[in-house]
Amino acid sequence: MTMADSNYERVDVFFRGNFPSKAAAFAKKRRTFSFLLFCGYSSQRTMVYNIKWIIPKLKNPSKLWNFASTLTFAAVGIVSKLIIPDSIHRLKWGVGRLILESPVTPIVVPIYHVGMDQVLPNEPPYIIKLFKKVTIKYGEPIDFSKLLAELRASNADEVQARKAITDYIDAELLRLKKETEELHVKL
Q1: What is the pLDDT of residues 143-152, one digit of tens each?
Q2: Are 145 and 105 a contacting pair, CB within 8 Å?
């Protein structure tokens, strides 16, 4: 993997926008940020993982696909430390964008879990609690080929297409949420 020449340059590349731009504040914590900087986007970066064996038809991956493939954690649409009963969490449109701009249409497996907040509480003390009940339910794989073909046939703009894809996944997760919560109560 090709990265920036120095640790200071890596910090400057990683901290853009509303983040602090001075690398001197982070010079002593190089090890702390090494993983984050390793995943950070740089124009000099190449792909970390060769994903062509996973998707044989993939010839030249897009920049977005290259960036997403360097992340070592799953792309998550919902990150929330607040537990609000009976609330509907909306997915971010970036999930739809990843699917829309992918060179090969990915197959998405929706996953919903209940009970992780009992294993690792959201409030202090943040101590892992053993022997708590966690229910994880996997949905049927979602193939977006038909939906993408319909969106392209209707000449939907990019924002409408991302919203349609995200809403479709959101509906599947809502259905899966109900099933998972019922299963969690039964077990």
Answers
A1: 999 999 999 9
A2: yes
Concatenated DSSP letters of the chain: ----SSHHHHHHHHS-TTS---GGGGGGGHHHHHHHHHHS--TT---SS--TTTSTT--S--HHHHHHHH-SS---S---S---TT--PPPPHHHHHHHHT-SSPPEE--EEEE-HHHHS-SSSS----SS---EEEE---EE-HHHHHHHHHTT--HHHHHHHHHHHHHHHHHHHHHHHHHHHHH-
Please state, in angstroms and rounded to a whole number, the distance separating the CA atoms of residues 105 and 107: 7
Question: What's the predicted TM-score (pTM) here?
Answer: 0.56
* Residues whose CB is less than 8 angstroms from the CB of residue 135 and which lie 6 or more positions away in sequence, other chains included: 113, 114, 115, 180, 183, 184, 187
In the structure encoding, which two tokens stand for residue 125, read together?
């003390």
Alpha carbon distances (Å) from 187 to 82, 94, 115, 117, 131:
25, 34, 12, 17, 14
d(CA 173, CA 169): 6
